[in-house]
Amino acid sequence: MPAPHAHSPASTRLFVQRFSATRRGARLARLLAALQLVEWGCPRGTDDHDAVTLVVAELAANAVLHGRVPGRDFALLLRRDDGRRVIRVEVSDTHPARPARARPGAVEERGRGLVLVDALAASWGVRDRVGPGKTVWAECAVASGRT
């Protein structure tokens, strides 16, 4: 007779949504991501919730400000991976230009988005996607596999 498993198999959950490439679309992406995190058991006000929400906000803002192609949307994918204890954020747009991390001066008001993503995420990068454009992704470590 086989021994019962001490742990259930690793769970992966997905959230996928397209948004208009507008400031309103970026705001809605952030709000829906925050709500999805709560649904996954990651309460508002926790470090994990705040970090992932900020990463979504920055990547969505970049898609709208720098990756916008008139008439085209951007897509958000969140993947919770309990086995690896990460939440992966992917934002895809149709603009071919790849983002570059800036080194803003102390008085500059812009250019800190990817600096924040780099500080909050365990890793991040850019990859080509099927069709035009690219996907910017970030993986945020979470304290518990039950997020």
Description:
With 147 residues, the chain is an alpha+beta fold. The chain is built from three helices and five strands, in the order βααββαββ. The longest helix is centred in the middle third of the chain and has 19 residues, at 47-65. The protein starts with 11 loop residues before the first strand and ends in a 6-residue tail after the last strand. Strands 1-2-3-5-4 form a five-stranded antiparallel β-sheet, covered by helices on one side. 30% of the residues lie in helices and 27% in strands. A hairpin with a 5-residue loop joins strand 4 (123-128) and strand 5.
Average pLDDT taken over every residue: 87
How far is the first residue's CA from the last residue's CA?
33 Å
Structural class: alpha+beta
Low-confidence stretches: 1-8
The Rg value, from CA coordinates, equals 16 Å
Can you list the strand order of the major beta sheet? 1-2-3-5-4
What count of helical segments does DSSP give? 3
- Please tell me what the overall shape is: globular
State the share of residues found in helices, binned by percent: 25-40%
Strand fraction equals 25-35%
| Major sheet attributes | 5 strands, antiparallel
The string of secondary-structure elements, in order, is EHHEEHEE
Q: Care to count the β-strands?
A: 5
